[in-house]
Design a protein that fits this description.
The chain has one helix at about 25-35, and strands at about 1-5, 15-20, 40-45, 60, 65-70, 80, 85, 95-100, 105-110. The chain is mainly beta. The chain folds into two domains: about 1-70, no CATH class; about 70-110, no CATH class. A hairpin with a 4-residue loop joins strand 8 (about 95-100) and strand 9. It is elongated. The chain starts with a strand and ends with a strand.
């Protein structure tokens, strides 16, 4: 079975549907025209070889990277070439930390 993600006008994933194997090569047309669903459909896969990761509702599609990506977690984070959001600098290697956008720093969680 092949999976296809429906995108809205903002490239946000609306839903993911399964199409029969024999329709995989024409999945977009099968869903949009044959089933009459309209819209824009892109193939996604549980193995990361198709557009980086399996699409889920609420994720975004990056046309520049041809990848499904998570939403930007913080305004200061940047998207790398692999479609992963990176903080301004890495978290400390030991301890349990969370990013604080107002402080622009990692804050250690204490028990």
């Amino acid at each position: 079975m092949a999976h296809f993600a429906e995108l809205n006008e903002f490239n946000e994933v609306q839903r993911v549907l399964v199409v029969p194997d024999e329709q995989e090569s024409t999945g977009h047309d099968y869903l949009a025209s044959d089933l009459g669903l309209g819209g824009t459909w892109l193939q996604t896969s549980y193995n990361a070889s198709i557009r980086g990761r399996f699409a889920a509702p609420g994720m975004l599609y990056s046309t520049e990277l041809d990848l499904f990506i998570e939403r930007q977690p913080f305004a200061s984070w940047t998207l790398d070439a692999a479609g992963e959001w990176q903080p301004p600098f890495p978290a400390p290697e030991t301890g349990d930390y969370v990013w604080s956008e107002p402080d622009m720093n990692w804050i250690e969680l204490t028990a």
